[in-house]
Amino acid sequence: MVLFSVLHFGYELTGWDLLKVFCGSDESVFEHIKIGFWAYLFTSVIEFFAFKKKQNFWSSRFFSASLVPWFIVVVWYMAAAIFGKIEAVWIELAWAFAVVIICGLFATLVEGELETLKTSKGFRVFVYVLVIVSTVFFVRFSFGKPWIDVFVDPYTL
Question: Among 61-65, 77-81, 126-130, whose mean pLDDT is lowest?
């Protein structure tokens, strides 16, 4: 939650272009899923150095980090699916915090299960390729976005 918040406002507060890779630069869905990806990876790096290395540590964290953006999309839009457009800003903000927590818990559950399994070399290669592809996706579109709705800042429509 803390790293997600730092990355959400990091670029806005500093204006440093380099931070666009990791931080949100607008309120589009893309920027939020990018923040989730990086926040989860950075948290995993901190965890790696703070605690003893576990079996399947990086493959479980990379897999979870690659899933977090899509967890964010699915969980975030559940409110819209159930309630429609949320008009009250405080409710939307509360839901946003809840989404970050829920998605973090989902990812933690996935990584915990993966740590207990004996994974094949093929699966580990898949996970490393997945995190590399995710990284390219988030870095590339941080500096030039295609015209697809997930990249559009809803406040500019």
Answer: 77-81
Tokens of 35: 């923040």
Cα-Cα-Cα-Cα dihedral of 106, 143, 14, 62, to 10°?
Answer: 30
pTM above 0.70, yes or no: yes
**Does position 13 have pLDDT exceeding 90, yes or no?**
yes
Q: Residue 61: left if φ>0, alpha if ψ -120 to 50, beta else—which one? A: alpha
Contact of 72 with 32, CB cutoff 8 Å: yes
Asked if residues 69 and 29 have their Cβ atoms less than 8 Å apart, the reply is no
Of the candidates 133, 10, 3, 103, the one whose C-alpha atom is nearest the C-alpha of residue 21 is 10
Q: Which of 57, 10, 15, 77 is nearest to 38 (CA)?
A: 10
Per-residue pLDDT at 128 exceeds 70:
yes
